[in-house]
Design the sequence.
């Protein structure tokens, strides 16, 4: 194996690993473990962030733009503009995938905050607080009310229609549990039933549903890993070709047969990844 072939194979492996990390997203195992093992304490779990001095450098550059340097590197190695064009096309696609992943994480964090809100209200009520005071304290501590926090807390403080505001807040993604809180609040006000008992049952139901979804995602982790391995097989084949002394990029990018194989293989790879991702998403639906 020559030095140039080894350098080329290493660069290709690094680019492939970066592309897969951008497409698949960050590992959610630690976050799901925290949610599964969390108690009903009022812990507001926010997104994991870098230190401030690093965040100032990383935040202005969105992660999907890392596809361009990978395309430039492959364009230089293959002496063709096609990898650069592919990297440019991959930027919006990768950005869409990353934004969808961030949205799912935000919804999961919001659902966990709603569970913590129910537990916090129950704790305040059992400590002798009034329902409005309990909602004020727990709402500020958990941040589960989101953009509607001001409206809900104002209704609780000044005797407004708290169930209506809670139902309005439950329309946001991940906050569907607030509709159950509104129903418990309405029943407690109308019939004098114990609000703490109803919220206890609501918290248990929401926690059970969340744990079931987390367990399902954990069981699908093997399927996701299989999809990633299958997606990497063509890149591994190119690296093996370089290791054996061949020049697969020149064949793929500078010959009619190679271009045909590249187009057909790329289409089959995209269709296979889309199909596998659709199967996994269908299995994740409740």
Sequence:
């Amino acid at each position: 194996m020559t030095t140039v072939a080894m350098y080329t194979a290493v660069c290709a492996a690094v680019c492939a690993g970066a592309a897969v990390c951008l497409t698949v997203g960050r590992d959610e195992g630690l976050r799901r473990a925290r949610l599964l093992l969390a108690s009903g304490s009022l812990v507001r779990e926010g997104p994991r962030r870098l230190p401030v001095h690093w965040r100032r450098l990383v935040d202005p550059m969105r992660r999907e733009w890392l596809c361009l340097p990978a395309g430039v590197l492959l364009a230089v190695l293959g002496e063709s503009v096609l990898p650069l064009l592919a990297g440019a096309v991959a930027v919006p696609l990768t950005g869409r995938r990353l934004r969808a992943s961030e949205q799912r994480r935000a919804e999961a964090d919001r659902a966990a905050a709603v569970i913590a809100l129910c537990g916090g209200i129950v704790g305040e009520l059992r400590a002798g607080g009034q329902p409005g005071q309990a909602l004020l304290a727990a709402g500020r501590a958990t941040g589960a009310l989101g953009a509607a926090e001001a409206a809900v807390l104002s209704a609780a403080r000044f005797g407004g229609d708290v169930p209506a505001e809670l139902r309005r807040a439950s329309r946001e993604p991940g906050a569907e549990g607030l509709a159950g809180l509104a129903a418990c609040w309405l029943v407690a006000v109308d019939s004098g039933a114990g609000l703490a008992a109803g919220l206890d049952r609501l918290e248990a139901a929401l926690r059970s549903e969340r744990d079931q979804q987390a367990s399902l995602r954990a069981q699908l982790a093997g399927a996701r890993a299989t999809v990633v391995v299958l997606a990497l097989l063509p890149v591994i084949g190119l690296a093996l070709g370089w290791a054996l002394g061949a020049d697969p990029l020149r064949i793929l990018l500078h010959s009619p047969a190679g271009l045909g194989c590249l187009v057909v293989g790329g289409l089959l790879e995209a269709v296979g990844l889309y199909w596998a991702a659709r199967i996994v998403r269908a299995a994740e639906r409740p």
